[in-house]
Design brief:
The structure holds two protein chains of two kinds. Chain A is mainly alpha-helical. Helices cover 51% and strands 2% of the residues of chain A. In chain A, helix 7 packs across helix 8. By secondary structure, chain B is an all-alpha fold. Chain B has one helix and no strands. Classes of the chains: A mainly alpha, B mainly alpha. At the A-B interface, helix 2, helix 3, helix 4, helix 7 and helix 8 of A face helix 1 of B.
C-alpha cells in the first residue's frame, strides 16, 4: 500500500486515519482535494503558499497576515511547503469531532501573529485594521480603541495587556461562537464531496 | 453587532475561513 505511484510517497494512509478523526476512505478523499490544491500552480504534490492563497482568495498574489498564519500552522516542518501528512494533521483540528481543546489551541496560535505565546493588543488591532482595509470599511480610531478595550476587559483577566493561552481558553468557552471557523462541516462528508477517490481506493472502510 | 473584536475578526476574515478550500473543487 505504501509508495503506491498514485499516492503520496511514503504516506501510510491507515496510520493517518488512525491518528486522525478520518477513516481511510476519507483520507483518500482528502488526497483528491490535496492533489487539486497542490497542482494548481506548481505540479509537485506540495501545497505552496501561492496555491493556498489561490484556493482561499482566488488570487495567487498579495500579502495577507491571515494567510501567513494559516500557512505557518499547516507547515509543521517549516520548510515552506505543506505536505499531505501536514494537510491531514491540520484539517483534523477542523473536523466536527475534533476535541475542543485542539480547536482552542489552534485558534490561539492563529491570533498570536508574532508567536510570542500571547495574543497582544497590537496584534488584535492589526487584524481588525487589516479586515477594515480589505473590506473598504472605515472606523474611527476612537471606536476601534473602544472595541479593543471592551474585548480586553473581558478576555485579559489579569489586566497585563495581553491574553495568555489560559485566558483565551476561559474566554472562548464563554463565547463559543468565536470557534465557529474552527469547524468545517465539509469534513464530515468528504467522501461525498470528493467521490473520485473511489476510482483509486484500495480499501473499503 | 461586532462589539467583540474577535467576533469581528472571525466573522469578517476570509483568511481564517478554510471552507473555501472545499468549494468549487
Amino acid at each position: 500500500r505504501q509508495n503506491s505511484p498514485r499516492t503520496c510517497q511514503y504516506v501510510d494512509l491507515a496510520r493517518l486515519a488512525h491518528d486522525s478523526p478520518f477513516s481511510v476512505n476519507e483520507v483518500e478523499a482528502l488526497y483528491e482535494l490535496f492533489k487539486k490544491l497542490s497542482c494548481s500552480i506548481i505540479d509537485d504534490m506540495l501545497i505552496h503558499k501561492e496555491e493556498l492563497r489561490l484556493a482561499l482568495f482566488q488570487a495567487p498574489y498579495g500579502e495577507n497576515i491571515f494567510l501567513d498564519r494559516v500557512f505557518d500552522l499547516f507547515d509543521e516542518k517549516k520548510n515552506g511547503v505543506i505536505e499531505f501528512e501536514e494537510f491531514i494533521h491540520a484539517l483534523s483540528v477542523f473536523h466536527p469531532n475534533a476535541p475542543i481543546e485542539e480547536k482552542i489551541d489552534f485558534a490561539f496560535r492563529l491570533y498570536d501573529l508574532r508567536q510570542t505565546g500571547f495574543i497582544e493588543r497590537e496584534e488584535v488591532q492589526q487584524m481588525v485594521a487589516t479586515i477594515l482595509m480589505e473590506s473598504d470599511m472605515t472606523l474611527s480610531d476612537e471606536l476601534l480603541n473602544l472595541i479593543i478595550d471592551k474585548t480586553f476587559a473581558d478576555a485579559d483577566s489579569d489586566k497585563d495587556g495581553k491574553i495568555s493561552k489560559a485566558e483565551w481558553k476561559a474566554y472562548v468557552l464563554k463565547h463559543p461562537s468565536l470557534l465557529k471557523n474552527m469547524t468545517l462541516p465539509y469534513l464530515k462528508d468528504v467522501t461525498t464531496a470528493f467521490p473520485s477517490f473511489i476510482f483509486n481506493t484500495e480499501v473499503e472502510d | 453587532k461586532f462589539f467583540n473584536a474577535f467576533e469581528f475578526i472571525s466573522s469578517m476574515s476570509s483568511g481564517f475561513d478554510l471552507s473555501s478550500l472545499f468549494e468549487n473543487k
